[in-house]
Amino acid sequence: MFEYRGIDVNDLDEIVEEINLIDIREYHEFKIGTIEGAKNIPSEELLKNPEKYLDKYEKYYIMCRAGSKSLKACKELSAKGYDVYDVEGGFSSYEGDKRI
């Protein structure tokens, strides 16, 4: 079983092209802006049926707007055996160059 770890949202620029970044905000929030390479899977869908979206042999970085939903999601997903990182601070704290 994995224990989730955290990474500051502003440390993503260096690794964003190499990671599985999941933005768990609702679609209407995601389409306003996100970080390059992020895949949108709203938190309710992801937590209800993680095996549909995630592979237990992959590592995932979970991001929300401010960090509270991603923390909750990471706790639940790691308890189910997924290797996840909580993107601390969320999209609202992102100051990097990969905003789209």
Describe what you observe in this structure.
The longest helix is centred in the last third of the chain and has 12 residues, at 68-79. Helices cover 26% and strands 21% of the residues. β4 (59-63), α4 and β5 form a beta-alpha-beta unit. It has a single domain, classed as Oxidized Rhodanese, domain 1, CATH 3.40.250. It has 100 residues and is an alpha/beta fold.
Task: Describe what is shown at a glance.
With 100 residues, the protein is α/β, with parallel strands linked by helices. The protein is built from 4 helices and 5 strands, in the order E-E-H-E-H-H-E-H-E.
Question: CATH class, anyone?
Answer: Alpha Beta
* Spatial strand order of the main sheet: 1-5-4-2-3
Portion of residues within helices: 25-40%
From the spread of the alpha carbons, the general shape counts as: globular
Output the CATH topology: Oxidized Rhodanese, domain 1
Number of domains: 1
The largest pleated sheet is described as: 5 strands, parallel
Poorly predicted runs of 5 or more residues: none
Residue fraction in strands: 15-25%
Distance between the termini: 34 Å
CATH architecture: 3-Layer(aba) Sandwich
- Count of DSSP E strands? 5
The oligomeric state of the chains shown is: single chain
**Backbone structural class:** alpha/beta
| Order of helical and strand elements | EEHEHHEHE
How many DSSP helices?
Answer: 4
How big is the Rg?
Answer: 12 Å
